Fold:
Amino acid sequence: MKIIAKKAYTLLEIIFVVMLVSLSLVLAMPYTQQAQVNYESKVMLRNVMQRFEYELKNRMLSGGSILMRFSANKVYFLAEQGDIPTNENTYIFPKEVAFTYEQLTLNQFGHVGAQTIHLNTPTRHYAVVFQLGSGGKYRYAEERK
Structure:
């Protein structure tokens, strides 16, 4: 009788491989969450700036002014100082994100004034810079912390 040896993994080898895979997943989890927060923040900031451009052009055509209010991780577009924000006028960023700016007024002439809006995420810093006399034009900057 001839004995045929089967080639297979031992239980110890399988446990070791499963342990290595689970350890790598546990270590990678915070980085994926930070990447997701950064991506969502970048997309929301671009959405807010598109809304800003829309509102700026609308104010120049129809007159009046609009107020952009920044509160922690939210941006509100309000027609007047005492308005109550609605869902369509509110942009909500991830909770790990914070603005370091209070409000911005868009007038009927398209002038915003020289100012910088800062947005801080866990690993990045975004800045929207409005230059003096630019007619609402801005520069967008992103840097790692």
Observations:
- The mean pLDDT is 85.
- The chain is about 35% helix and 30% strand.
